[in-house]
């Protein structure tokens, strides 16, 4: 009987550990999903504030459909994450319901065993007292063992009583969790219904806009290609500035070769570059409020999928009169007026450069040492359509980097 109880206890312990690990894993995943859901909700709010709030400005068809398309993608991500949360809650609810069933069975067993033990104890007490039980021993050793048995039996009674209390408390807590989980799931389902209705409206708007664009597709295709040519011209000018800075650094270091691919760094420059790299993924956004309208890399146009767009950085939509700030300490390498790109500020961090393009005002000059988050200028707002777009890029020498890998939660 003792062996059976030990085996049962061992199995129950293993099951408890497994359930606890599973519960912790699910809880962690639920927290991650909730964090992501709140980020997406905030992003949609920013999209509404930054892209759709000013209805007095007449947007071009291309800009309007780009904004609607972007909002649709974020909304779809929100619905997907919310669905994942609801599904995970369903699994957690099922797990807790199974736990409740197991705990109730364990509690009934404990109560039944405890009741039998009390009855047995009462009968034993009526048949012979503890003292008589001890005095009837054949020798001192047997009496000592009987005394140990009585003490252990009393201790076991107390432990069983405590186990019943513990299981009862655990059952009550799980019931509370179950009720909260059901409420949370219902809330998520209601939020998703609202999001789905909003998505349907946005998809309908997108369909109407695309129908209008398809009537004169060649015209819009040419407009997109022209914008892409202007963007490439800006990229070439920035790359030229970087190569000139590299050549200048090599000349200052006394190098005879006219290398334009690698900076000659001082010990201070190397330390700054190392510090910049150590903060990869933790750098602040270049604007306080913003949404990424175009991400890094080669991608099809959302308007004409056959036209490919090459983005060497990101394009961030922000609010009117938004201040641009340095994402990390460094030295202003160049302030430059660029055709189709307005003013550009380039900040050097050792052999890394951050570039801030499409500024209307600049508060710094070449050679200035900047601190992290120091204001360096103001983003230009297009008076015709009200768009306030910052082009932000990260370079290692002349090689472009994905800003999303450097900026915190971009």
In short:
With 410 residues, the protein is of the alpha+beta class. The protein is 60% helix and 16% strand. This is Peptidoglycan DD-metalloendopeptidase family protein.
Mean pLDDT: 85
Gap between N and C termini, in Å? 62 Å
SSE topology string: HHHHHHEEEEEEEEEEEE
Number of helices: 6
Low-confidence stretches: none
Structural class: alpha+beta
Structure description:
One of its GO terms (molecular function) is metalloendopeptidase activity. It holds the Pfam family Peptidase_M23. The chain has about 400 residues and is an alpha+beta fold. Helix content is about 60%, strand content about 15%. It is built from 6 helices and 12 strands. The strands form 2 sheets. Strands 1, 4, 5, 6, 7, 8, 9, 10, 11 and 12 form a 10-stranded antiparallel β-sheet that branches. Helix 1 (about 1-50) packs antiparallel against helix 2 (about 60-125) and helix 2 (about 60-125) packs antiparallel against helix 4. It is elongated, with a radius of gyration of 35 Å. The mean pLDDT is about 85.
Show the helix and strand layout:
Layout: H1 2-51, H2 61-127, H3 130-135, H4 140-214, H5 217-252, H6 267-278, E1 291-294, E2 297-300, E3 308-311, E4 314-317, E5 323-325, E6 330-338, E7 342-349, E8 352-362, E9 369-370, E10 375-379, E11 389-396, E12 399-401
Antiparallel strand pairs: 1-4, 2-3, 4-11, 5-10, 6-7, 6-9, 7-8, 8-10, 8-11, 11-12
């Amino acid at each position: 009987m003792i062996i059976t109880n030990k085996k049962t206890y061992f199995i129950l312990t293993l099951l408890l550990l497994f359930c606890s690990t599973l519960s912790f894993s699910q809880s962690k995943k639920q927290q991650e999903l909730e964090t992501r859901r709140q980020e997406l909700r905030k992003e949609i709010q920013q999209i509404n504030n930054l892209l759709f709030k000013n209805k007095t400005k007449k947007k071009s068809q291309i800009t309007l459909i780009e904004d609607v398309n972007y909002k649709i993608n974020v909304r779809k991500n929100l619905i997907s994450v919310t669905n994942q949360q609801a599904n995970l809650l369903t699994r957690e609810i099922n797990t807790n319901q199974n736990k409740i069933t197991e705990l109730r069975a364990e509690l009934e067993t404990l109560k039944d065993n405890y009741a039998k033990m009390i009855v047995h104890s009462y009968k034993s007490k009526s048949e012979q007292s503890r003292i008589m039980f001890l005095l009837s021993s054949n020798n001192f050793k047997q009496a000592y063992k009987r005394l140990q048995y009585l003490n252990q039996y009393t201790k076991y009674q107390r432990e069983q009583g405590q186990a019943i209390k513990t299981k009862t408390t655990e059952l009550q807590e799980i019931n509370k969790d179950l009720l909260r989980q059901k409420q949370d799931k219902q809330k998520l389902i209601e939020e998703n219904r609202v999001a789905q209705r909003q998505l349907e409206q946005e998809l309908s708007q997108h369909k109407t806009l695309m129908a209008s664009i398809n009537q004169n597709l060649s015209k819009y295709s040419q407009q997109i290609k022209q914008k892409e040519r202007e963007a490439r011209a800006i990229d070439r000018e920035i790359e030229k500035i970087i190569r000139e800075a590299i050549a200048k650094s090599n000349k200052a270091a006394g190098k005879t070769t006219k290398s334009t691919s690698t900076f000659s760094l001082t010990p201070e420059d190397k330390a700054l570059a190392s510090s910049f790299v150590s903060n990869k993924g933790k750098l602040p956004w270049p604007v306080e409020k913003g949404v990424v309208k175009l991400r890094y890399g080669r991608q099809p146009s959302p308007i004409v999928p056959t036209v490919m767009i090459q983005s060497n950085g990101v394009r961030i939509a922000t609010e009117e009169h938004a201040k641009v700030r340095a994402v990390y300490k460094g030295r202003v390498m160049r302030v430059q007026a660029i055709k189709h790109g307005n003013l550009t500020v380039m900040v050097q961090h050792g052999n890394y450069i951050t570039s801030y393009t499409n500024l209307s005002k600049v508060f710094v000059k070449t050679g200035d040492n900047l601190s992290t988050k120091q204001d360096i200028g103001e983003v230009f707002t297009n008076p015709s359509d009200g768009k306030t777009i910052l082009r932000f890029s990260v370079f290692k020498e002349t090689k472009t980097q994905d800003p999303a890998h450097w900026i915190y939660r971009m």
